[in-house]
Design goal:
34% helix; 12 helices; 417 residues; elongated; alpha+beta; 2 domains; Aminopeptidase; Alpha-Beta Plaits; 4-stranded antiparallel sheet
Length: 417
């Protein structure tokens, strides 16, 4: 079993970086995220690992294997957070990966395959409205052109943000990993939902990851005086945005049997005065599902309803597709491996899909992937109240360590010879 006190101390140290009274604030490529990655780099070097930062800002730490030409076994997650987030989302996967290496060092265990620890850059969409930039670049799923026009809410372009972080956006493509660089990738993460806690289960073996389709919708009407403009003569952009929100909820509810969900998570209103009919609104829409066909039906409903609003409310509506990703199934052999490890260690588990997106889904383009969940108290995530008990964390790390040893192929120790 890994050292619980060391895990706890690492969690506490990392949890102080970016902590505020309103929650964690480690936005992608921010100074706070840099401080967190610097802490991780220092810990990896102390554990005898070599470390590099690629052109996308991903941090990759390597524990060498005995076979120099063997592909690596990848483990990891992310350190950036949502606005006012929690201390476990992403960070727990980083701590787990680091502790696996530390524990192997403690026991003098060498592996044939090298082990690569990944801290993926910009997993969260909170800053740019575009998620998992680091892992998508690594996997060759996006190019420099795909994200060149991104800006954050403060109006900073991604090129400027990269430059401020000491990264050259023009060299982004250099971060792509070659095929066969990895033999497998695994991630431990909090569930971000209530299933495991509700069933009193310590481990969820992930079967697949839902993928989002995201839009930025601009609704333009006509700003007017709220007191002197009759209701039947208004072109209220906010009413149009509200109807879009309600219609999306109806469409997603019709697809609930497929686990499909739809969310309008951000609305901006202009001019934003109490006595002015809103003339323009901007909505950010997230539609996701394990089922591609179910998600496509909701998207189709959205497009049809936007046409309806244009005709009935005489609004100008621009709908910009931000991303359209495909749900990913975990590798069957990886699922089977996690299942057998749990059975061998007498750990109760369940198979479950992930409604949230993760970097693992992009790494599937490079190698077989697997993922495990540990419980999230109250199903809470992306919130300061995020919490997972230390005992549950240790159980998850023990399962991850066993999986890494199986895939990386442990060399016999002197006691075994």
């Amino acid at each position: 079993m890994v050292k619980a006190e060391r895990v706890k101390a690492t969690m506490e140290a990392l949890g102080k970086i970016g902590s505020t009274e309103r929650g964690m604030m480690r936005l992608a490529y921010s100074e706070e995220e840099r401080q967190a990655t610097d802490y991780f780099i220092a810990q990896c070097k102390a554990a005898g690992m070599s470390v590099r930062t690629d052109a996308a800002g991903n941090v990759i730490a390597r524990r060498s294997g005995t076979c120099s030409n063997a592909p690596a076994i990848g483990i990891g997650s992310h350190l950036d957070t949502v606005i006012e987030g929690g201390k476990y989302d992403g960070s727990l996967g980083i701590i787990a990966a680091l502790e696996v290496v530390r524990d192997l060092n403690d026991h003098g265990i060498r592996t044939q395959h090298p082990i690569d620890l990944f801290v993926f850059a910009c997993e969260e969409s909170s800053r740019f409205g575009f998620s998992q930039i680091g892992s998508k670049v690594l996997a060759g799923l996006i190019t420099q052109k795909d994200i060149a026009d991104l800006t954050d809410k403060a109006g900073n372009t991604i090129q400027t943000v990269f430059a401020n972080r000491g990264l050259d956006f023009g060299r982004l493509g250099e971060a792509q990993l070659p095929k066969h660089a990895l033999a497998a990738f695994m991630e431990l993460h909090i569930e971000q939902g209530p299933i495991l806690e509700g069933k009193n289960l310590p481990i969820g073996v992930v079967s697949g990851i839902a993928a989002p389709t995201r839009f930025n919708i601009c609704v333009r009407g006509h700003a007017a005086h709220s007191g002197s403009t009759p209701m039947n003569l208004r072109q209220d952009a906010l009413i149009g945005a509200a109807e879009i929100t309600i219609e999306l909820e109806k469409a997603a509810r019709r697809e609930m049997q497929h686990g499909t969900v739809a969310t309008v998570g951000d609305i901006e209103i202009a001019p934003g005065a109490m006595n002015v009919v809103p003339g323009e609104t901007h909505l950010k829409v997230d539609i996701r599902s394990i089922s591609r066909t179910s998600k496509d039906r909701v998207v189709k409903c959205l497009y049809l309803f936007l046409d309806h609003l244009r005709d009935t409310r005489h609004l100008q509506i621009d709908c910009h597709l931000l991303s359209n990703e495909t749900p990913v199934r975990m590798d069957p052999q990886m699922i089977d491996m996690f299942e057998k490890i749990c059975q061998k260690q007498n750990i109760r588990f369940t198979h479950m899909p992930s409604g949230a997106g993760h970097d693992t889904m992009n790494m599937a383009a490079l190698c077989p992937v697997g993922m495990i969940f540990v419980p999230s108290a109250g199903g809470i995530s992306h919130h300061p109240d995020e919490h997972t008990d230390l005992a549950e964390i240790i159980t998850g790390i023990d399962v991850l360590k066993a999986a890494v040893l199986e895939r990386a192929v442990a060399e016999p120790t002197e006691k075994q010879v």
